[in-house]
Amino acid sequence: MKGDTYLAWSSDEKIRKKGESGGAVTALLKVALEMKIVDAVLVVKMRNRSRYDGVLSLITDPNEVLQSGGALHFASVNVARALKEYLSGAKDFRMAVTCKPCDCRAIIELAKRGQINIDHLILIGLN
User: Fold this and answer.
1) Cα–Cα–Cα angle for 91, 92, 98, nearest 5°?
2) What is the model's pTM?
3) How many domains is the chain built from?
4) Each residue of 29-53: b (16+ CB within 10 Å) or e?
5) Tens-digit pLDDT profile for residues 67-84
6) Contact residues for 76 (Cβ-Cβ < 8 A; gap 6+)
7) Domain that holds residue 50
């Protein structure tokens, strides 16, 4: 391992219970919207109340972030493609994006080709 390791959890008990492993990511997304660090967050939310089926959701209201809390297992969503094709490559607004390592790599490659504005993104890698 390289670098420092940090343990984090939300100080908000409601987020801590709803989020995965203490809700740190959910809390960070909520604060990013509240403080206007980003205009929106792109997350994968449960579909049909199944932790195995997810759908991409673009959230602009900090109060809606809690609905996306918790891990989704095997929810295969092409985040990079959605950014490029449906969200104008994040060229018009700032966004936080939760993504798996493969999604992060694809986003970086598309940014190298000028198809996504990575300067407008905060990538939050999840595994």
Assistant:
1) 70
2) 0.84
3) 1
4) bbebbeeeebbbbbbbbbeeeeeeb
5) 887 766 666 788 899 999
6) none
7) 13-125
